[in-house]
Amino acid sequence: MRKALCYALLVMLIFPENAHAYLNPGTGSFVFQLIIAALLGGLLTLKIYWSKLRSFFKDLFSARRK
To answer: Within a domain: residue 6?
Structure first.
């Protein structure tokens, strides 16, 4: 049963029917902006928490020496 279901899904993915959908020219630039914003947001998050993370490990390893 599972094998037949996987086979049917594979056939549907290989031979899709027409979608009859329209993507306007601004859609690509919008998706590009979303990707860039997600990357920059992740980098900003790393920048904000980097010093906190560094000081945490610095305190953690210096506490063992005392």
So the answer is: no
| Cα distance from N-terminal residue to C-terminal residue, the chain | 64
Per DSSP (E only), the strands in 1-66 are: none
Tokens of 31: 């998706």
Which residue's structure tokens are 């630039």?
29
Q: Which residue segment(s) compose the domain that 55 sits in? A: 25-66
Total-model pTM: 0.51
45: nearest Cα among 57, 35, 53: 53
Helices (H), 1-66: 2-14, 26-65
- Residue for token pair 């020219």: 25
3-class SS of residue 39: helix
pLDDT tens string 1-47: 888 999 899 988 888 777 777 878 888 899 999 999 999 999 999 99
